[in-house]
Specification:
5-stranded antiparallel β-sheet; Alpha-Beta Plaits; 27 helices; alpha+beta
Length: 598
């Protein structure tokens, strides 16, 4: 192997480790890839920066805006009440209609904002129809994935593959190139969820009391400061008591006064009764030394909360959240959102202690106490595209369906599809023109346009596209392709497709689907060239395998988003997703050569 091949291979392996470990954000990993490749001379600075102006990056960026514009009309959120009635009458029919509707929407709207918008709606729909949210949230994520493979606009993965093709001087994918087989996958997936997957889903009915749900007994209690306590006369932020016990003060009762979520500069006085979040064992150990007395653990019942003017809410971190990757302490929820974090459901664990040191990931659920009057502000915040979280508390009602606005945005999106599919206008220009039209007609302000873009995905695409260029330029793609052909080629092209799908699927389950698409597409092209066959079957293998990741909660960002809200375990995704992945692998191996002749 040449020095450049070794450098690129080590970069790929290093990126894989970072993607899996989640030590750094996927966008930062992509930029590190870019800098390593430029710094070692594998690609030129111009080649590195081309990813930011690539039509694939531009298209994905503006598709986020179009998706946001469509979802803001309230059309999608109106399906909840209607589906609740179907689920109550016939759960199997409800699942079929639910998955088919979500898949149909996701064929033309990016799946990440769809899940972010529908997450609280589906949770409420589950409660209304007498089901556990765990019975519907995995189907929500999976259905958006099914729909994403139906058209070029369905997911950023498709556009990345098309972008890699154009960077190598080949024609990109057409709007409906993947539609024939994509529809087969959509129908097969919906039928699987209806008749098989539905029975494999866990039934985890969480306690309606959020204190029980997050095991808060023993972590929220009352203490009273006695005369002579070291904390008396100190500001909350300076109090040694607060620092030693690593506690958050949620409320102070002083005579007939009540201070809810007090500021850090409030001075503590003798006789103050503090409602705090803290490990009970630590308070018992320090109570004599700290001159405090303990009251029984507080109940978190709704009536009790109303008296205090606060509300318990569950905040789910979204995939596009600026809180993702931050420590909870850095997020500073108290100052920014008037929310005191009480516990965090992080992956499969509920964390109560040292909350400030918890690294937030997409899908984490924060139990927080918020001033009641501020909940409306948080609900308004969650309607924005770059909302840091969505609220899982019961919704007061679904968004109002704006029919005229929906009709106009739908026509604009239809125009993008028609113009780009007929190759009258490049898709990047079509999406740009659509966004400009929405801004000129004041359906979206420019501020909304900027906020609608998931910039971490844009940086991820720009960085990983440079990796594809490097693999093709240094010859590593050819080397890996010849290795694949040497092993499976003697058995025929269908077996090569089978192996390529499996390799792509495994990488997708371990790291970002878009990064996988950028990494494997050059190998697919080199494989077709080595076999002397049409590249389309091998390109489509990557398109489908890179998108159809079901077996882990981390391979696809919509899976990560519903992980905590559904109280899932990793084995749940494996149990439901493994048979589905196996079925799609067999279908792809059999049907790709049929729909896309070799």
């Amino acid at each position: 192997m040449s020095p450049h091949e070794i450098i690129v291979l080590c970069t790929v392996l290093g990126a894989l480790v970072l993607f899996i470990s989640e030590k750094l954000g996927i966008d930062l990993v992509a930029l590190l890839i870019l800098m390593v490749l430029v710094g070692t001379g594998v690609i030129t600075p111009k080649e590195a920066l081309n990813g930011f102006s690539d039509p694939a990056t531009i298209t994905v960026m503006f598709m986020f805006v179009l998706s946001s514009a469509l979802l803001r009309t309230g059309a999608v959120s109106t399906i909840g009440p209607k589906l609740s009635r179907i689920f109550r009458a016939n759960p199997a029919r409800g699942m079929f209609v639910f998955a088919l509707c979500i898949g149909g929407v996701s064929a033309f709207v990016n799946n990440t904002p769809v899940v972010a918008l529908l997450l609280p709606v589906v949770v409420q729909m589950a409660h209304s129809s007498g089901q556990a949210p765990s019975k519907l949230l995995i189907p929500l994520s999976y259905a958006t994935i099914f729909g994403g493979v139906v058209t070029l606009l369905g997911t950023s993965t498709n556009i990345v593959v098309s972008g890699v093709l154009t960077t190598q001087g080949r024609p990109g994918l057409g709007m409906f190139d993947q539609t024939p087989l994509g529809l087969v996958f959509l129908v097969a997936g919906v039928l699987y969820l209806t008749f098989i997957g539905r029975k494999l889903l866990p039934d985890r009915r969480a306690s309606k009391d959020l204190g029980d749900k997050f095991s808060m007994r023993g972590y929220v209690t009352e203490i009273q400061l006695l005369a002579g306590a070291p904390a008396v006369g100190q500001r909350i932020m300076d109090s040694t008591l607060v620092k030693e016990l690593d506690m958050d003060i949620i409320e102070i009762r002083r005579a007939d006064q009540r201070f809810t979520l007090p500021s850090g500069d409030q001075v503590l006085e003798a006789g103050d009764v503090l409602k705090v979040r803290c490990d009970l064992a630590r308070i018992r150990d320090l109570k004599d030394r700290a001159h405090i007395t303990m009251e029984p653990v507080l109940t978190l019942a709704n009536d009790d909360l109303r008296k205090r003017g606060t509300t318990l809410v569950e905040l789910v971190i979204t995939a596009s959240s600026d809180l993702e990757g931050k420590l909870l302490g850095e997020a500073d929820l108290i100052r920014k959102y008037r929310a005191v974090p009480l516990a965090v459901r992080h992956r499969e664990d509920v964390v109560h202690e040292r909350l400030h040191d918890v690294v937030l990931r997409a899908g984490d659920v924060i139990l927080a106490e918020v001033r009641s009057h501020y909940v409306a502000t948080l609900k308004k915040l969650e309607t924005t595209q770059d909302s840091p979280f969505v609220i899982l508390t019961e919704q007061e009602g679904v968004a109002i369906f704006q029919r005229k606005r929906f009709a106009f945005v739908a026509l604009v999106l239809l125009a993008v599809v028609v113009l780009s599919s007929m190759e009258l206008v490049p898709i990047a220009i079509a999406t740009l023109g659509a966004v400009v039209l929405l801004a000129v007609t004041r359906l979206m302000k420019m501020k909304d346009v900027y906020e609608a873009v998931e910039w971490r995905i844009v940086f991820l695409l720009a960085g990983t596209l440079s990796l594809g260029v490097a693999m093709e330029k240094c010859g590593l793609a050819d080397r890996l392709a010849h290795g694949l052909v040497d092993v499976l080629g003697p058995f025929g092209p269908r077996w090569v497709i089978c192996g390529l799908y499996l390799v792509t699927l495994i990488l997708t389950e371990l790291m970002s689907n878009t990064a996988t698409a950028a990494l494997v597409t050059p190998i697919a092209l080199a494989t077709a060239e080595a076999l002397g066959l049409s590249p389309m079957p091998f390109i489509m293998t990557v398109v489908f395998a890179a998108s159809l990741g079901f077996m882990t909660p981390f391979g696809y960002q919509t899976n990560a988003m519903i992980y905590g809200a559904g109280q899932y375990k990793s084995v749940d995704f494996l149990r439901v997703g493994a048979p589905l992945s196996l079925m799609f692998w067999i279908l792809a191996t059999w049907l790709i050569p049929v729909f896309y002749p070799l």
